[in-house]
Amino acid sequence: MQLDEAIRYACIGESILFLGSGFSIGAKNQNLEAFPTGSALCERLISYGAIDTSEDEESDCKDLGYISERYLETHTPQDLIRFLYRQFRCNEFSETQETIIKLPWKRIYTTNYDNIVEEISKRNSIARESVAANQELKDVINRERLIVHINGYIEKLGEADLETHFKLTNSSYLKRTIPDSDLAIVLQNDLLNAKSIIIIGYSLEYDLELQQIFAEDQYMKEKCVFITKDSSKRTRMRMGRFGIVHDFGSDGLADIISVEQECAITATSDIIPSNHIYRCLFPVSLKDSVDLPSITDDDVIDLFIDGKIQMALLQRSDYKNYIIKRTNADDIISYLQGDTEAVILHSDIGNGKSVLVRYLENVLARTNNVFYLDNLGPFILDDLDYLSSLQGIKYIFIENYNRILYSEYAKIIALYRRSDFKFIFTVRSYINDNLYNSFIKIFNFDHTKVAMLDMNIMDKDECKGISELIDRYSLWGKKTSLSAYQKRRYIEKECYGELKNVMLAILNSADISKRIQQIVEILFKDKTIKEIVLLTFIIEILNIDFTLRDICFLLNKQMHSASIMRNPELNSFFDIQNNSIKLKSSIVAFHVLQKGDYNQDISDVLIKILGVLDRHRHVGRYRNALRLLVAYSNLRMILSQKDSQINERIIKIFEAAKMLEHNKKNHFFWLQYAIARMENHDYSVAEIYLNNAKEYNSEKYLTDSWQIDVQMARLLLERTLYEGDELNAFINFEKAHRILCSNKTPERHYPLRQVSLYKRYYKRFYNIFSATDKVAFQFFCIEIQKQVQVYLNAQNCSEKGNRKKNREIRAINDDLAKMLENMK
User: Fold this and answer.
1) Is the dihedral of CA 202, 208, 213, 216 positive or negative?
2) How many CA atoms, within 13 angstroms, populate the side-chain half-sphere of residue 207?
3) pTM for the predicted model, two decimal places
4) What are the backbone angles phi and psi of residue 408, rounded to the nearest 5°?
């Protein structure tokens, strides 16, 4: 980025200013002296404190931490604070400093203790607040025009601060105030969202903490501008890794600002042309038909193995040689062209959502304005405003709606729920089960105008299509010799009609599995890379929206981000660019974790990051991750089922997680921990934890109370069966049955799923019941069967499109019918 462009962004309030000690040159303190830098401050401390340095090395006399400690040997902390007040309170500032600070900076960060920025702002009637590095995220986030003092602020200096976040003494420097603080997250977010970043008088050379945040990637480098003065070659080279360097100092910058301010009226039009620059929503563009490439064997293998989808190949008339067309694709388009406001496409990992989305984008983009959400940030409002000015229907694809549901931007998107906007959302099925009601509420959709389609199970035509596609490209491996009928039946029965299982079968073929294992073995020789890869696999499988910076931050590997991006083996699995690390295939991740022996490593990684997530739970995506990482079904998904100790490992993860502040009174955590204990047949402990969940279930989450009730019913039935408790068998059954019958969520399949235990109960206890109890048991079965049938016959059930659930409930209904027939 050119400096004039960076300044123009600053003129319209879209730039971040970062100040180091070099910016203070030219100002005077209350003693009418120049503001001291590190070595000058040491000299003044020695002089004012009458410190005897006769036995000290010259280098020690320039060590601020050491000299501060020496000062405190003969003076009180209050003496030191009074001294610092005189040194760092501003009395005079230069015209250069005033010119720079008067710009409407989006946020100002400074490593300086002084109040120069505050004093200039006050004298120019610019409203700005000041915060120190130890303030919580909630005090900083979503507040612009702030001045953030990274190393401490003179006006907010107390005795306790000398030992913590005010970076002066040795003990304060030992406190890692940036990577472990909310400030790191705010600063990272600002650096990502700012249109330009101007750094004055700061080289990053000796500050490793900040180097971890100013990542060495091209995206950051393109918008960072360093202003320095008479710097060495080494310093310029160091700064050059992070941005463009100008060596003319603050005076040179002020001169250019003066010129650019004369153009301030036209600045916006100069840097934002009439053709809108998309920041979050991007248009789907199609290639000219003459430029379409042919479909090759490698293209299909890349799709099947690496999940790489080529949009251009979907435009071809013979696209069915590349993908199978899902049967309900035409229905989805019909819904969108009718009065449907939104479509939700849900499936489990690897069952074809992404391919279907690309296909739909391709079809709709031929005659309509089609957009997809990429980077979510404050510019979403700009993009939506621009889309509102376009004629016709706008189709917006938002994948993994859970990543934005609880962000402030979801409410912005909800404002654009209007007749000329149509939304297509994707989500994992299990997440949709839990978040659908919140989805409707937050986006303010009329649920009767939301079409929901389950993409998990392929119908017969789709099974036939995928079988023929695998045949065409000879990917059957050991099953090549099967007949066409046997292959189709294999997909329908042994793969349960799920694309995920078909892909896993292909991955399990000897050659492909061996190739993957060779790459994994190379990667996992390096412990740092191993942890990063495992965490990336975990977040991909669980659909957690983390960036590369998030991953490095959680693992405390920030210094490794540059080498990670250059690792050739990593690039075999991931697309790594501009702070993004995206798996080429989530199925490959699932395959590796299930085939390998990594459960201990996964447990270690989870326990390691849970504490970091807890400390930064103010951040929406981190708080959401805390929930997803303690969901019992999720832990079962990422841990290999080959491990005989899997339940014990899960319990250890929960034992670590229960110490987190976020979980101590979190009803969802205790519910999940209870489920884990039930799976381990620890029914007494599970009962305690279910009662914890019930106690902590606040009014905010009363809609979740049905889950706790259902698990209590499950516990009563399973515990009685496991312990063979004939004495209390009927009493416990009646209690459980009453809970299930009083279920307040008739549209949910999960409460009815527990009815599958009725069959086991019937076989184990029915013959020992008294005649009266047998009659009552029969009545209870009739009563619950009616509820099962209501679910199956419901037309507007939110889960109606889920074939797997409907099939499961139908099987339960059949079992009830057989039991009732036998009880006649």
Assistant:
1) positive
2) 18
3) 0.68
4) -65, -20
